[in-house]
Amino acid sequence: MPAGGKGSRTNCSQPTPQKVPNRLISEKSPYLLQHAYNPVDWYPWGQEAFDKARKEDKPIFLSVGYSTCHWCHMMEEESFQNEEIGRLLNEDFVSVKVDREERPDVDKVYMTFVQATSNGGGWPMSVWLTPNLQPFVGGTYFPPEDGLTRVGFRTVLMRIREQWNQNKSTLLENSQRVTAALLARSEISMGDRQLPPSAATMNSRCFQQLDEGYDEEYGGFAEAPKFPTPVILSFLFSYWLSHRLTQDGSRAQQMALHTLKMMANGGIRDHVGQGFHRYSTDRQWHVPHFEKMLYDQAQLTVAYSQAFQISGDEFYSEVAKGILQYVARNLSHRSGGFYSAEDADSPPERGMRPKEGAFYVWTVKEVQQLLPEPVLGATEPLTSGQLLMKHYGLTEAGSISPSQDPKGELQGQNVLTVRYSLELTAARFGLEVEAVRTLLNSGLEKLFQARKHRPKPHLDSKMLAAWNGLMVSGFAVTGAVLGQERLISYAISGAKFLKRHMFDVASGRLMRTCYAGSGGTVEHSNPPCWGFLEDYAFVVRGLLDLYEASQESAWLEWALRLQDTQDRLFWDSRGGGYFCSEAELGAGLPLRLKDDQDGAEPSANSTSAHNLLRLHGFTGHKDWMDKCVCLLTAFSERMRRVPVALPEMVRALSAHQQTLKQIVICGDPQAKDTKALLQCVHSIYIPNKVLILADGDPSSFLSRQLPFLSTLRRLEDQATAYVCENQACSMPITEPCELRKLLHQ
């Protein structure tokens, strides 16, 4: 069983002999299991809870969160473990607990309500529903008791109980009115539009909006908190490629590369164990919110690989490799799947109460004791510990300001942040740059070994098809760019895991979740949780990336079948675009949404637009191009209004209105000259392309899809490349340097 496995959170809701579990004890979700010993009579989302609410005419209290969420832990400890609050909930409400990562449809519907009726959203999300599942009050975290600025959870419960008993008809009317308004506001449809908007206009507006919000000094696009948002960096790279001879194009490249460098030097990156934390609490990327999410690692490794393709600077490729090293070590199941997240909180020492960041922070004393060795050749007395502390900004008082540590849990603690270049640190002590690099790496390794003895953060060992698809892309793209077969093999193992454990052959459907069981086994909920749109979109993208990295056509064939299933289950034949959930799965929910924002993850519709373009390039099937046009048209109004909210879709719009390159390599997959041409293509940043290996077999899968492949020949029995656009192909090319020249035009 993985460390910190299912349901475990040290000193948090641990079962004692007196405690009796509630019905969540039968669930698989680590988040739900964390609440299995609360005195609250929790129900999982389902008919049993809804029937009880209708029969007893009680409002539903819906609590939504996820297992590595710091404020979810706080509310659980403060309110849901409280016997009196538990009694209030049990007497007057039907309490339902939802893991937002298991049921993104439930989360999105009610988050839409909370964001529309309050000052924002976030988790834990607290929503009160009628027995017919219509929301009437919503919020996020509530402290247990009233404070100077916030009303307490107990007070909220008593006020809602009073209103339900005395003004129920008014509440129901308001709820219906708000739901109707949300339904109208959330509708995304082609209407009477025939075509999507101009890509040039949307590109320009999206870039200008990003430029206006850009932080010149530290990179990124907000004051604080600052999120990595790889979709923005991906847009900027694409914008640079199509505007490289302009000032705006150079600016876009500089914005993306500088942001990636500042993030990699900041405390948002774990310099000891690698990988990135979820976001920074300050504008300098210094003090993070310490949880680590799989979807961030997956997207950031692609962003850093692309930065390496564009700049040639190995700084970026080293960061990408570090991320994948972390994922392989900490977030990988032995059968090939990838876990969801690691928590922000852990006990500083065994038996103590968990604190945020405890696993990751360091005192000066700890570092001095671990690294006492003198550094030879320095211009002044110096230990390895002093060198590391200077380079990474550690101080006796700690590097975390009181405003970032309201509970005073991190006094005297330091988050490692690169403060100087290697050259400056070397000059400061009269050392060679390579000697400093070696000393720092050796010091970080000793810190890593020492950190192994600390209590580990809780691991959310749930595996999600969507995030596994993103991670397959991460390993496949980075492995292809760097020419590392070992990384591609991780992607292959991930895809095999998806097919073996998260795919139902009989129905052709993906499952949303599976879980790490004891002894390395894989468990499923019963009945299974079927996949949502994002599961299909991200897995299809992962399979397309894996085909281009491995040239194994079986992955492409599976991608086509999954796209067919996605079209059948989610496509809106009247309005265009894809719904987030199946009609049957979301039965009873007041809204059936189409996700319209590229945020911490790309929206599934934006990803699907890219997938449809690529699938058309691989197969020539006109239906997929037609669907892509309908999808982009359906989202026209949203793109026109706020293009910066959909940078990934604006990128798809640009790809559609440019010409997709079909790069065909004719050759033996195992031959050196074939591999040299393939590696040439992988080393260049070309987002708007498909890469096809034609092995000369007219009965192969791709030859049957694209008959023109059989007309392309090897030149003098050498591996030969063709670059095709608009059904016209270039002259044959056998030399990688000539292919590079053509692709750079």
UniProtKB/TrEMBL annotation:
It is found in: Secreted. Keywords: Developmental protein, Differentiation, Secreted, Spermatogenesis. Residues 21-182 form the Spermatogenesis-associated protein 20-like TRX domain. Residues 8-19 have a biased composition (Polar residues). Residues 1-21 are annotated as: Disordered. The keyword Secreted applies. The keyword Ribonucleoprotein does not apply. PANTHER family: SPERMATOGENESIS-ASSOCIATED PROTEIN 20 (PTHR42899:SF1). May play a role in fertility regulation. This is Spermatogenesis-associated protein 20. The lineage of its organism: Eukaryota, Metazoa, Chordata, Craniata, Vertebrata.
